[in-house]
Amino acid sequence: MGQLAAFVGVAVVVVVLPGPDMALVLRNGLAGGRRAAVETALGVNAGLLVWAVAAALGAAALLRASAPAFTALKLAGAAYLVWLGLHALRDAWRGTKGSFPHVRPRRRRTSPFRQGLLSNLLNPKIALLFTTLIPQFVDREGSVFAQTLLFAGIFIGLGLVWLTSYALLVAKAAALLKRDVVQRVLNVVAGAVLTALGIRLAFERR
Questions:
Q1: What is the pTM of this model?
Q2: Are 43 and 120 in contact (CB under 8 A)?
Q3: Reduced to 3 states, what is the DSSP secondary structure of residue 103?
Q4: Residue range 35-47, pLDDT digits in tens
Q5: CA-CA distance, 58 to 80, in Å (whole number)?
Q6: What are phi and psi of 102, to 5 degrees?
């Protein structure tokens, strides 16, 4: 029980720390309102679920052990974040409101849910999180698989509550901040953060 309480305490801190997921929710919430923000949050947590299962099955540990695989995933994730950030900056420059960078006339390429999912799946730091944080709280005398799933489930639950609440807050704020100049400033902030996080991820070491 002590291990569980300790894990929850650490997980809460990790979950609320600002990162690419929150920046993406901010970006999509400002552009598309409540539904887009919540869909993005759900996509992020769907990605966490995939990583949780991969960690329980040992696949995430293989990624951690393989430098080429880790680097390839890291660069793909960095490129995706930079792409999202640059589109947000482009929208700020054009004064675009209420549209996503992936939206084109009569054709929608990527949903907010998929953006959140891809942003999370292409972040190898999540794999490291599940393969370094959770094992510290697992009792080796019990079922490692079951405990890993339990801790991962708790982490995902906390993430879902936090990110969804944040998404609703962003959507509510977006509804109040309809002025074009405010939208542009917030798009610049979100775009700059996403781009900076992408560049940082590209140059980070394990």
A1: 0.69
A2: yes
A3: strand
A4: 888 999 999 999 9
A5: 26
A6: -95, 5
